Amino acid sequence: MFNIIENKVFLISRRCTALATRIKIKIAYNTEIRKEIDELYRLMDKVALAKWALSIAKHILETVDIDYKSIDEIVDGFRVNELWQIKKATIHEVRQAGFKIHKIARESDNEITKTALRVVGQAVSSGHMRGARYGSIRLCCKSNWIS
User: Fold this and answer.
1) Which of 44, 67, 121, 131 has the fewest CB atoms within 10 Å distance of its CB?
2) How many CB atoms lie under 10 A from the CB of residue 110?
């Protein structure tokens, strides 16, 4: 079921819609697609959503030519989230890893890099709260990086 839902959500997200059940950013929404995404979101479990958020984050880093393997905080963040998915890391560890990445984003002078790092921070933080699980998707849509 995860693969079917993941593929469908990914294809729908490529149309640049967000997963929030309540509109939080100002982009044009297709109401029909939004309802479909909300239903898929409701059906997916937190681990499936976290995996999807990490895959989006890696895609964004590739899109903006950031070698995440050279940034220890990102490598650690991905590792902590993946450990959380198998119940070997705590929510606190996930939150702290996300905070470290957001700190790097705040320190960046380049808006593209800053936004990409915020996407990554949201994706890494996806384990600690339901809203963060689609925060990275909202940022991608806002930046038109999913097309």
Assistant:
1) 67
2) 10
Give ∠ CA 139-35-134 in degrees, rounded to 5: 25
**Which helix (H) or strand (E) element contains residue 123?**
helix 111-124
Q: pLDDT tens-digit profile of 115-144?
A: 999 989 989 988 766 554 455 455 545 444
Q: Residues 6 or more apart from 41 whose CB is under 8 A from it?
A: 9, 19, 21, 49, 134
Give me the residue spans of the domains in the chain: 45-143
Is the distance from CB of 126 to CB of 49 less than 8 angstroms? yes
d(CA 35, CA 74): 32
Question: How many C-beta atoms lie closer than 10 Å to residue 49's C-beta?
Answer: 24
Residue 120 neighbours by CB under 8 Å, 6+ apart: 57, 60, 61, 68, 74, 77, 101, 136
